[in-house]
């Protein structure tokens, strides 16, 4: 489903996307206000160019993208209407930050309490609040790996697997990496970020924790990586177009009702800290995604999980909006 009214809202003079005409192959596009698109294979004179290829040569291409957007005239530009909007980039790696919003983790702890938990709600909230404050003081983010195959477009249907008993939403700010980053410091980490996009990191709460052996811990493969469990986009907005990634509004509506509405100010660890932390172990590559966690207001908190027919509208300040409909597997 593609809500045309949402398709071209973003901060700055341009954004990047991956689009296609009916029955045509996807192409990397330069999108400007006024709902016009330039096929960057033509604009950058590279017939084989992909969205990832743009990030692989980000420092070279960025000035040219600015120049093209400043003079958005000519027959090569086409209307956005009628084009399908895909996920804006195909990463090789997806780094996901868990437990990064203070209030979100406190709410989850309360929602996951065992029936025989002797603590009151207030005691449980106070205890996990102390844990979160200690994590912040110790400066130790929590990062794990997701699969690119879970990514889908910002307006595509989300198929709820038959085995997913508690499918939940988690809208997140995602950073797109611009050049190889390995063991970079916090002070320089944002120099490796090309821009930002929106990710809805769906999670089946029933399979987060292993039931057969609690010592194994969390099962992120099972709970987060079903096909289509990461709607992405619609756009990558250059970092220079956002004043402060640490002060953006993250909002998710379910069937028109606001469920998440929080600022990225509630993050324990900044984008720079998470990028730096992930790079201490792994080399981040151009086009890779770094998800930064989700704020309070998930389905477990509300006691309302996703089901067939639900429509999610997700938006982040300056990055546009996505809309996805949930469909039951096999329907």
Automatic annotation (TrEMBL):
Gene3D superfamilies assigned to the protein according to its UniProt record, in alphabetical order: Fumarylacetoacetase-like, C-terminal domain (3.90.850.10)
Residue ranges occupied by any Fumarylacetoacetase-like C-terminal domain in the UniProt entry: 94-325
InterPro entries, alphabetized: FAH, Fumarylacetoacetase-like_C, Fumarylacetoacetase_C_sf
GO MF annotation list: hydrolase activity
Taxonomic superkingdom: Bacteria
Keyword terms of this UniProt record: Hydrolase, Metal-binding
Similarity comment: Belongs to the FAH family.
Name used for this protein in its record: Fumarylacetoacetate hydrolase family protein
Source organism of this protein record: Streptomyces cylindrosporus
Lineage: Bacteria, Bacillati, Actinomycetota, Actinomycetes, Kitasatosporales
């Amino acid at each position: 489903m593609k809500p045309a009214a949402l398709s071209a809202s973003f901060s700055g003079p341009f954004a990047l996307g991956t689009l296609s005409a009916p029955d045509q192959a996807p192409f990397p596009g330069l999108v400007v206000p006024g709902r016009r698109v330039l096929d960057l294979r033509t604009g950058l004179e590279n017939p084989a160019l992909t969205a990832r290829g743009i990030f692989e040569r980000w420092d070279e291409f960025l000035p040219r993208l600015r120049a093209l957007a400043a003079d958005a005239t000519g027959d090569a530009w086409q209307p956005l209407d009628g084009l399908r909007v895909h996920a804006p980039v195909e990463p090789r790696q997806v780094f996901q930050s868990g437990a990064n919003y203070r209030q979100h983790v406190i709410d989850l702890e309360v929602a996951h309490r065992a029936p025989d938990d002797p603590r009151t709600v207030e005691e449980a909230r106070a205890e996990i609040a102390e844990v979160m404050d200690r994590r912040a003081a110790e400066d130790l983010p929590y990062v794990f790996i997701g699969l690119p195959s879970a990514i889908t477009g910002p307006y595509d249907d989300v198929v709820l697997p038959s085995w997913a008993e508690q499918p939940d939403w988690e809208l997140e700010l995602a950073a797109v990496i611009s050049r190889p980053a390995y063991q970079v410091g916090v002070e320089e980490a944002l120099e490796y970020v090309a821009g930002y996009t929106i990710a809805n990191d769906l999670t089946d709460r029933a399979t987060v924790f292993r039931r057969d052996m609690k010592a194994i811990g969390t099962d992120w493969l099972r709970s987060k990586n079903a096909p289509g469990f990461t709607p992405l986009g619609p756009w990558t907005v250059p970092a220079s177009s956002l004043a402060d990634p640490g002060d953006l509004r993250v909002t998710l509506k379910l069937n028109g009702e606001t469920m998440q509405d929080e600022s990225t100010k509630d993050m324990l660890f900044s984008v720079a800290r998470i990028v730096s932390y992930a790079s201490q172990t792994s080399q981040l590559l151009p086009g890779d995604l770094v998800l930064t966690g989700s704020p309070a207001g998930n389905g477990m908190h509300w006691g309302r999980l996703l089901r067939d027919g639900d429509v999610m509208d997700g938006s982040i300040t300056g990055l546009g909006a996505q809309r996805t409909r949930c469909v039951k597997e096999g329907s």
